[in-house]
Every structure is written in C-alpha cells, then in structure tokens.
Write a structure and sequence with these properties.
heterodimer, A: mainly alpha, 79% helix, B: 243 residues, Rossmann fold, 6-stranded mixed sheet, 27% strand, globular
C-alpha cells in the first residue's frame, strides 16, 4: 500500500513540468560553472566544486519548494486524498507513502545532479589540468548524499507545515524560512560566541541559542568546503550527520502523522 | 449496513462564529437497499457522507458501517466512494489510476487487470484507457472516478452527486450502472439533485433540510411525486427561498 502511494507520488513529481524546468536550469548553471572556471586564475577545482554543489543544492531545494509542496497542497485542496482515505488506508500510511515518494523523486533527481556535477568537474579538469588542484570526486559524491538527506529532512518539515498551514503559500514560506534559518544558525552562534562579539546583548544571544536548538542544523549537511579542499571527513561526523538527518525526519514525520490523524478533511 | 445515530456536526467560521451542518441526525440503511439522500444545497448531505467516511468527526453521536465504528479503518474496506466533483490524478492514464485504486484496496495485479478491463468497457473508457486523464472531458473524468470507486467490487457504494456534469449519454451509463448494482444486491447510498433518477432507482429516500432529517420513507409509498414531496418538506421546514 505504501509502495503504491509512493510510486504514484513519484510519477506525479516526475511528470510535473516544473521538474523539467528545474533540470534545465541546473544544466545551464553547470554550463555556467564551466565558463566561469575559465575566468579564475588559480584553484579552479575548488571554485568549480563549490559552484557545482551550490547548483545541486539550489536545484534540489527548488524541487522541495515547487514540486513537493504543490503535490501535498493539491491533495488537500483538490481532495484527491479521498481516493485513498475513503478506503481502509490508515492516514499514517498515506502520509508515509507520500513522504517515501517524494524522497524517491529527490533520489532520482540527486543522481542526475551527481552525474551533471561530475561531468562538469571532469570537463573543467580536462580543460585546465594544471590549475585544477586536489578535488576529491568521492567527497563530491558524498556531498550529494548529504544534500539528499538534507532535502529529505526539509520535505518532512514541509509535510508538517502543510498540516498546520492554511494554504500552500504559507507552507512555502515556513519551509523556506526554516531552510534559511537552519542553514545559518550554526555560523551565527559561532560568531556571537567568539571573543570579538563581546558587545552582543544577552537577549540576542538567547534568541540565537533558541533558534539554534529549535531549527534543524542544515549546515551539518554542507560538505562544499570539505569536498572542494579534499579534506578528510571523519567517520564520526558522517555517522552523526546521517543519524541526525534521519532521526530529525522521523521525529518531524511522526508529529505530522499525529496532526494528520486529527485533521478534518472538509 | 449503515447506522447513523444522533449525529451533530458544527463548523467554525472564525471570529467565534459557528454553523450547524448536521443536527441530531439518525438514519439506517439496510444491506441491499438503495437509499436516496436529497435536500437543498447546503442541507448537510455531503457532510453526512464525509462523517460516514471519517473525513470529518462528529461533535456527538455514533456512526457505523457493518457494525464497525467509522473511526475504524476496517469499516471502509467494503466501501466504494465517489466524491462530489471529483478531482482525479490527471497526470495518470485511466488504467494507471484504476491500478492505483485497486492497490489501495489491497487487490492483486491480476484481479486489478481483470476488473479494470471490465469496468473500462462498461463505462466506455476502453478506447481512452492509455491516455492521460488530463485530456479527458468532464464526463469521462467522472466515469473514471466511478470506475475507481467500483474497482474492488464494494458491498457499499456511496455516490455524492454521481450525475453531476454528465451529458445525457453519461447519465444513462451511470443510471444503468447503479441499477445493475441494485440488482446485484449491493447497498447504495446516493446523494443527488436529480430527483427523477432517485425516484426510479431508490427503495427509500430521506430528505435533509438544514442538517435535519425531515422526511424518510419508501419510494413506493409516496403519495405524490418526489419533486412535489421535496418542495412540500422544504417549505414545512421553513426555508424561505421555496415560498
């Protein structure tokens, strides 16, 4: 049952014209990365890696915001959810099926983005072999896995928000805000804890502290610097990020299921 | 088969305002019966159906299908439901849509294939089965939704405005289908504004006005036409627009 719901969700996503638009945009951005690399005097590999991973993150984010949220919103607004729930499908399984379908969609898109990123980097390396530097292609692949976990977490959050928001636009705003705040809280926290930030008022410190623990730490999944500089990724960091991403997604999805069970589908 | 006892439901409109959709509603539908639920717009017919399918929960009262509380998902295993103005997954083909509906009901692939073929032919959709639903006319979409409601051969069929948006040919197809369900001994609960069809198809009718069941009786025992009876009941209930 969950499989059937996940498959239909995947089909809905992959047949959405927005996905083709996002894929086209990602392709153009990768091509731009190649062009841009020719304008960099040194450390071309690092810049190209940074750009390729940023392109992949941005494209995956657009899929969550413009495909994932639309699918969930349509379900409620057009009442297509009735097809499943008027049968003996438990609401928990329905939501899990939707989530699995969206993660499957993200996985396929992420694989395509990985291929595009690797081709871009190989092309840049071929064009400028002397200035490419030591970029780890294995870490580039791992960085895509991290983006996938990050986007799965964001998808779970968008499902949760769609349970409480009155419209898809509000869900969009909440999801975007969470991503922006979650991506920057770690950096802001480190900044105000540094010696140079002694003049920061205690109230601001408290706000940052609350935001740091309340919002998911999206910076944990950012491997751009590690991959671009070919740094070693400690096993503990990898395991912590994966457990954090999966655990957070499970917690958020559980809360969404509780809300969905209580929701009135008028 | 269906038991609704003293069910009430109010909706919040915001700023503390509330509207009563269903008030102390009680009705039963026996196995094998075709029950017509009629009433003016906003009378509470669709709300009653949504309560029955646990899409919304009552403020008070009990609802059951086959002696199982509607809060129990198992109560809906034998139910086929056609919503009012159904939106269907238009990126799928009719065959994919029916396969999905069948899988949701726990059917095997072989059973889905066999039943889909049968329904697609019966509802004259077999020629278009491989095309995406987004290219279908409204009538074809309605027929696809009905096929999905019947894919698992349910014992209880709940139809909310099944004739809505259909041309005369489509209406005839659906009419014949409901008549066939009746002869197969299925229980059918229909909400409709097309009173002539209700009169010809149903064993019993219930007239709901302002959330209350104002009349219930066997169609054969009607002393006037259903049209006249409907207007009379609505007038007695005090709805101003009828006067």
């Amino acid at each position: 049952m969950i499989q059937a719901i996940a498959w239909v969700t995947f089909l809905e996503g992959i047949r959405n014209k927005a996905v083709f638009g996002i894929a086209l945009m990602a392709g153009l951005m990768m091509a731009f990365t190649v062009v841009l690399s020719g304008m960099i005097p040194r450390d071309i590999g690092k810049v190209a890696t940074d750009f390729a991973l940023s392109d992949a993150t941005f494209a995956a984010l657009l899929v969550v915001l413009f495909v994932g949220i639309t699918i969930l919103a349509r379900d409620m607004e057009r009442k297509t959810v009735y097809l499943a729930l008027a049968r003996s499908v438990p609401r928990s399984r329905y939501l899990l099926g939707r989530f699995c379908g969206l993660v499957l969609l993200q996985t396929v898109i992420m694989l395509l983005l990985l291929v595009a990123s690797l081709l871009t980097l190989l092309l840049v390396k071929y064009m400028y072999p002397d200035f490419f530097g030591k970029v780890s292609f294995g870490l580039v692949a791992l960085a895509h896995l991290f983006i996938l976990v990050q986007m799965s977490l964001l998808t779970a959050l968008s499902i949760l928000f769609s349970m409480i928001a009155s419209s898809s636009f509000v869900t969009f705003l909440l999801t975007t805000a969470t991503w922006l705040i979650g991506s920057s809280t770690q950096e802001v926290k480190q900044l105000i804890e540094s010696a140079t930030a002694a003049q920061v008022v205690p109230f601001t410190k408290l706000l940052v502290e609350i935001a740091y623990y309340l919002f998911p730490n999206m910076a944990l999944f950012d491997l751009k610097a590690v991959a671009a500089h070919g740094l070693a990724l400690p096993g503990a960091t990898f395991v912590f990020a994966m457990v954090y991403g999966v655990g957070y997604s499970v917690a958020v999805l559980s809360l969404a299921i509780i809300l969905f069970k209580r929701k009135e589908l008028t | 088969m269906i038991r609704i006892e003293n069910v009430s439901k109010t909706f919040r409109l915001g700023r503390g305002r509330r509207v009563t959709a269903v008030q102390q509603l009680s009705l039963t539908v026996a196995r094998g019966e075709v029950y017509g639920c009629i009433g003016p717009n906003g009378a509470g017919k669709s709300t009653t159906i949504k309560l029955l399918l646990d899409m919304i929960r009552p403020d008070s009262g009990e609802l059951s299908i086959n002696k199982l509380s509607t809060r129990d998902e198992a109560s809906r295993a034998c139910v086929g439901y056609l919503p009012e103005s159904p939106y269907i997954y238009d990126y799928l083909t009719a065959r994919e849509y029916l396969t999905y509906a069948g899988k949701l009901s726990g059917m095997s692939s072989v059973a889905i294939q066999r039943r889909s073929d049968e329904l697609l032919v019966k509802l004259k959709l077999d020629q278009a089965a491989g095309r995406r639903i987004s290219g279908y006319s409204k009538g074809m979409q309605q027929r696809t939704a009905i096929a999905a409601a019947l894919i698992h051969d349910p014992d209880l069929v709940v139809l909310d405005e099944p004739m809505s948006g259909l041309d005369p040919l489509g209406r005839k197809l659906i009419f014949d289908l409901i008549d066939e369900l009746k002869h197969q001994g299925k229980t059918v609960f229909i909400s409709s504004h097309v009173l002539t069809d209700i009169e010809r198809l149903c064993n019993r009718v219930g007239i709901i006005v302002q959330g209350q069941l104002c009349y219930e009786g066997a169609v054969q025992q009607l002393t006037s036409t259903l049209d006249e009876m409907f207007l009379q009941v609505v007038q007695q209930a005090g709805m101003n627009e009828v006067h």
